[in-house]
Amino acid sequence: MHTLRKLLIFFILSGAPFYVNGQQPNPPGQVKGSEKAIREAYLFAHMTHQDYGRLYYSVSLDGLHWVSLNKGKRVFEEYQGHPDICKGHDGKYYLAGNTSDASPDINIWVSDNLLSWSKHAIYTPDLKSTPGYANALQRIGAPKLFYDASTSQYILTWHTPHLEGSKEDPERYWASQRTLYVLSKDLKTFSSHPAKLFTWDFATIDVMIRKVENSYYAIIKDETYPTLYWVTGKTIRIAKAPSLLGPYSEPSAPVSPNFREAPALIPSPDGKIWYLYYEQYPGVSYGLSVSDNLNGPWFQASGYTFFSDWDKYTLPEKVRHGCMITISRKEYEALVQKFGIDKE
Question: What is the CATH number of the domain that holds 88?
């Protein structure tokens, strides 16, 4: 004990690092040995910092280490928006986007294989017809799709504000964002008018819906500005509901630090763990929270330290947000064959 005490004093006085032999464990959820992965591969459809609002692909075999395709060039020239892809009722993939937040239209494309896309539909929501939201501005932010197999319908969500920003208070524009939705059976015809998804009266954006077992989860960005009196501002939070349209519970405590947005959720290769990614904007880095249950608790994995022993996940440089989906190994190989993979 006396020797140990002297060693500790030596390290403190000399400034020598205590972490010489330390290393964080790898995130759970990976397959081991001959174990077969339940989730074989992953696609990240995203933008880049240099080319915001256009479509790029990156792929992964473990959900943690991502490499870009197509030599870091666009994979579909026609696309504009914040990429969001869902697999639909017919096994095809559907991609939503809009030319800009000020555009009145939401564009939807369809693909059999993720290799090429064709226009499926254009939907123009009548924002002023939203019940209890007649003061909605003509703004449509980040449309997202989810197909609910149990009710055989799609939900299309986006965020719309009701206050303009000002020089004195630019943040009030973002604080006025509310999440709206419509339903559809085929993504060609839609419910008669948009509606508010949540009963809470605070700002939400970037909402994605997922179903796990018998519960529905809304993964949201709390868009209120963080203060001592609203410490959850600009974080990723999760709400839960017994049915697709709610009612959704009050959102959870933050899953991310402040100033994070655009959540992307995937199951781990062994199917037992959830990986929840989110962007630290504006294009600074990505964070990753890990849990074995969407109800939490969550921990944040180590990344963007630029030390290989400490970075437990990696993404291509300057990627911006979009969506992550699971794909088959066959689909992964087809993507790599068509676009080519960037070797690092």
Answer: 2.115.10.20
For the segment 318-331, what is each residue's pLDDT rounded down to a tens digit?
999 999 999 999 99
Q: For residue 68, what are the β-bridge partners?
A: 58
Instruction: Supply the range of the domain harboring residue 109.
Output: 38-339
Q: Is 286 part of a structural domain of the chain? A: yes
The pLDDT value given to residue 344: 58
Whether residue 15 is contained in a domain is answered as no
Q: Are 263 and 28 in contact (CB under 8 A)?
A: no
20: left (phi over 0), alpha (psi -120 to 50) or beta: alpha
Does residue 322 sit within a domain? yes
Phi, psi of 243 (to 5 degrees): -145, 165
Residue-level pLDDT at 97: 97
Q: What is the mean pLDDT of residues 308-318?
A: 92
269 SS3 class: coil
170: left (phi over 0), alpha (psi -120 to 50) or beta: alpha
Total domains, the chain: 1
For residues 72-90, give the mean pLDDT.
97
Q: What is the reported pLDDT for 225?
A: 96
Decide if pLDDT at 200 tops 90: yes
Which are the contacts of 255, defined by CB distance < 8 A and separation ≥ 6? 235, 236, 237, 238, 276, 278, 289, 296, 298
pLDDT for the residue 224 = 97
Residue pair 163/170 in contact (Cβ under 8 Å)? The answer is no
Residue 321: how many CA atoms within 13 Å on its side-chain side? 24
Residue 5 lies in a domain: no
